[in-house]
Amino acid sequence: MTANADTPTVVPERRRPGPIFLVVILAAFGVLIALGTWQVERLQWKEALLARIEQRIVAEPIELADAEALFAAEQDVEYVPIRLSGTFDHGSEQHFLATHQGQSGWYVYTPLALEDGRTIIVNRGFVPYDMKDIADRPWQEPTGIVGFDALARNPLFEKPGFVVPDNAPADNLWYWKDFEAMRVAMGLETETLVPFFADIRTYDAPENSYPIPGVTQISLPNNHLQYAVTWYGLAAALAGVVGFMFLRRPQDTDREA
What we know:
By secondary structure, the chain is α+β, with helices and mostly antiparallel strands. The chain has helices at 19-57, 64-74, 179-186, 224-247, and strands at 81-88, 94-100, 103-114, 119-128, 146-153, 193-203. The chain has a 5-stranded mixed barrel with strand order 1-3-4-6-5. Helix 1 (19-57) runs antiparallel to helix 4.
């Protein structure tokens, strides 16, 4: 049977989104705004951190006792310049897997015996991969009292991320600076150990008689502004789509007389 040509064609009315859809959209919008706001807060924190680092690294070196007082008060001496002198215990050095200017190798961590009888763990700098053992180095390690400028570095007590491999102290192989484990590997006593690291910055010694100093990585990524713009942009796009859905007029039913 053929449909009557005079029968009106009915176009279903387009309904506006229901309450469940609105709840989901509002929740998603809230999450996006919260993520954007969190990134703005992180941006402010990172900018303050970078400003503090910049202020510290250009300052004159302070005495170790002053750095220890700062650490006791704030638990933070990161990148504070200090002046150190003492005698290295090369037999207890530990090796941190690292790269320098595209070359693989090791940061050499060595206990420095201070004149007051205490010890501080010092990152002396970089040596190429095949110079891990002292016997394989074409220079004579310094003996006696040496002096140098350094940057204080905060200790770590837990792995900085799950992608970082576990240290292997038995093999003298370190992937992250586990302060307590390194202390044990070096045979140092907690009571006489300065509670933070030091990275050599400049060194009072003949050239080519020591690992490459000044390897501290100071530049920190700061991508929080881009992340904030991304999250806020997604929130704005979502609001625009939902607004369009609500502001457009539902189609009226077409009827033919």
